[in-house]
Amino acid sequence: MIEVDQLTKRYGPHTAVEDVTFRCEPGSVTGFLGPNGAGKSTTMRMICGMTPPTSGGATVGGRPYRHLPNPGREIGVLLDASAQHAGRTGRETLTLAARTMGVDRGRVAAVLDQVGLNDTAARRRVGAYSLGMRQRLGLALALLGDPRVLILDEPANGLDPEGIFWMRGLLRDFADRGGTVLLSSHLLREVEAVADRLVVIGGGRVVAQGGKDELLAGAGTLVRARD
Length: 227
Description:
The chain has helices at residues 40-47, 90-101, 106-114, 119-123, 131-144, 161-176, 188-192, 212-216; strands at 2-11, 14-24, 28-33, 55-60, 75-78, 149-153, 180-185, 197-202, 205-211. By secondary structure, the protein is α/β, with parallel strands linked by helices. A hairpin with a 2-residue loop joins strand 1 (2-11) and strand 2 (14-24).
């Protein structure tokens, strides 16, 4: 369960996020939609304790992120696939994270296989990875602690169509086993195939939220060009 309550973030006179409130239930995938610069990443960083809010709050499993004794065992986070040590191999990256979280090293091989990084890829340095491979490694890190919640910011960036299809299946399976997923994107098509609920943000404010079928059932808007 993720609960976001009136989250607001101001940088001087600029308001990046204003009064954002929503919930993500266990057993569901929530698509967090909005154009670039709408406030999605800032909101997710506040949920994960990386950016202090100006006001409001967020909890995961009933507690703020900073109060979790070993957050990687409860929340899998992927906010920036490029924020990985370029000099380490993929396997070294996961092994170090496993030691930090107190996870059995056998999980490293399991999650590498789960995200489709073979032994050759695991032995390569992260600096030589494509963006799609970094995304897969980031997903492996998020899954390493066997968490109940996943918070993923634009995880499909750099993935080819086959990779996007694979990722949807992975997230759907995670939710169907009782997990909670918050998945951000600026593309509706990217998330509508897997999401149960949608939260739409624009200009730092939630402009719509609800069940996917409910929000997509409207008649829409007809635009006619004069030319």
